[in-house]
Amino acid sequence: MLNKRRILLIDSSDSARTILFKELSTEMPDLDIIACATGKEAMTAVNRYEFEIITTGITLDDMDGYKVIEHIRHSAKNRDTAIFVVSGDTDTRILHAESDDSNAVTAYIDKAEGHKALVTFILNFLGKETSSPIRVVYVDKSATSTAITSSVLNKNSIEFNHFKEADDALAFLKDDIDTHHKCTIDIVITDLMLSSQRSGFDLIHHIRNQLKLDYLALPVLLMTIEPGEDEKTDFTGIFGAGSNDFITKPLDEEDLLQRIHTLVNIKRQNEALN
User: Fold this and answer.
1) 28-32, 91-95, 178-182: least confidently modelled range
2) What structural domains and CATH numbers belong to the chain?
3) How many Cα atoms within 13 Å fall on the side-chain side of residue 111?
4) What average pLDDT does range 83-103 have in this prediction?
């Protein structure tokens, strides 16, 4: 896990590196940005640091950009790092289709779209909190639990719609999809124990199978009761039902917020890539 969020910009153009550095620094002041002009400099940085994102052009002054990517994918620290290739060649992916590693490049960015498009793409991938508010569908019939969870969400400026019944939540999600032609909700938080007609498992099953929203399209955080001394957490049931993650009650505010942001970041990264 990175102690500080860090990205690597590889571009032979001094002006391009300067513009990207300034705009990203302005948007995310705590982001550690390393900018390199050559493949050799980039390889040194890749060996020394762990990055969340690496962007590179195809043609560098000292080597082919794909040689740098190959080095990254064989490095100890960054073999799984997201790599964005910035190219003005619309046939880039076709020309490099013979690559042995079809997953070497995470995404291709059209250089013609300009630096602002790249900045936005990077910020969305990083899940920058200020880019847009988090939207939650919260399902819970317990007045006490609802009061506690609602207070945490309100205090942290997280937008949410609360429902006591699974059917009402499902109707809201369906209307959202019909209205926007996609799901604009970032995450569903649901208690396991709902009405006698539908449990939290039933709600999740309906989301995955009837609404056709998978783990990336709509993450689900399930709330359960802490198991007793002689009981075990039903991991098979929880994850088999389609939950992304679960959290036990009584809720810990910091833990709840961390899980929400983690799942929302995964969703938004997926949206950025698609």
Assistant:
1) 91-95
2) 6-126 (3.40.50.2300), 135-273 (3.40.50.2300)
3) 16
4) 58
